[in-house]
Predict the structure of ABC transporter domain-containing protein.
Amino acid sequence: MSSVVLDKVTKVYPGDYLAVDRLSLHADDGEFLVLLGPSGCGKSTLLRMIAGLEEITEGDLWLDGEMANHLPPRDRDVAMVFQNGALYPHRTVRGNIAFPLEIAKSDPALVQERVTELSKALHIDETLDRKPGTLSGGQRQRVAMGRAIVRQPKLFLMDEPLSNLDAGMRTELRMEISALVRSLGVTTIYVTHDQVEALTLADRIAILNRGVLQDVGTPAQIYNDPATAFVAAFLNSQQLNLLAAGVRTPQNQYVQLDFGPHRLTMPWSDPRAYAISQHTGGQVLVGLRPDGLAPVPESYEGPSFYGRVRTLEYHGHEWLAYLECGMPAVPVPEPPDPRRRAGRDNGGRNGSGRVSGLVRRLFSQEVEHQEQEQVGANPNSGIHRRSDLIIRLGNRPVWRAGDAAKVGVDLSRIMIFTMDGARIDPPRR
Ligand SMILES: Nc1ncnc2c1ncn2[C@@H]1O[C@H](COP(=O)(O)OP(=O)(O)O)[C@@H](O)[C@H]1O
Ligand SMILES: [Mg+2]
């Protein structure tokens, strides 16, 4: 068993590509930590730096309290499982799982005992004498996992081990990984881009985007109280409604979020009102989950929006309604492009001196472009991707396309962010 500490770890790839940016994170002894994020956000890079397969450009890695930046991979006592579960094709399942113990010249009786025990736990005891070529994808991944864990490493690293499997097999193996790893008590860092895998497996989840850590916490913490608009949107199975609003505090009576054609009022008694009022005169982003909105009758006097139902969408277990109500949706703010960031002038950081004049020019154009986009986030300027509010209707739609409709807003469920996407209203954590 082992603990892992990453302290401001940075990875710059050749070409000034900033794949991981000053990331600090820890995994406690015996913890199951999931790294979650979209493809290309730096998850594998991070895992490979922990394994010693990739050099750390800057920052420190500590394994079990020991500085490990330059520790050779074989001295880290780390086992890794990859997406494609590469096995030795000419060895049987038994031979594959036993291999790391044979290399370590373990007692053959002990080897047999471990292989038998693990193959039962992984439900591959029937396949022990077969070659990998005769196995299904799920079975191959089980063998790869058995081989990785057989020498009882201090740290278990898994890089999207289920993403090549079909949905049914993924669910089955997901539960087995969870049971196996927890029964062994091995510290595990598990990489995935699948939010369901992360929410179901993790003790804690760390979410990355473009090499930047966005949030870390238990699944319930980051789902209920996401630290950024990106996290709120990424963990949403339906699309998150993200709207720009002006903040007002008329005669200091209450806090008002002004969406243009619609307004929401928050009394001072609301614990979030003070933090939001700090942005009076400016703009904020308001995140509303489709299940925090509900149809209400015309006579409803609570917080609400109104509009026309553009279309209804059937999802089997529920209907979603798209309501046209004159409030432009805002794209989710993201960190700057890693290609440009690595070349920024950042006070002597490695790599900053290597940037060419051309890249620097591109970078400054990008900044200008972003500033224009910021201006574009003004609700009246109209350069937005979509302008429909999405509402979850359950399995009996009360509306039809074309209906005029009123939507009640559960004020306790709205989330307020700066225009850069950082959470404003204090999370309840
Ligand atoms: N050896 C490399 N050289 C240059 N760029 C790389 C290298 N490996 C990965 N990258 C880039 O770094 C970014 C992060 O990659 P990766 O860590 O594999 O992301 P993820 O695992 O989250 O999909 C990607 O944009 C990728 O193209
Ligand atoms: Mg990857």
Remarks:
- The first strand starts at residue 4 and ends at 13.
- The chain has two domains: 4-226, 234-330+377-417.
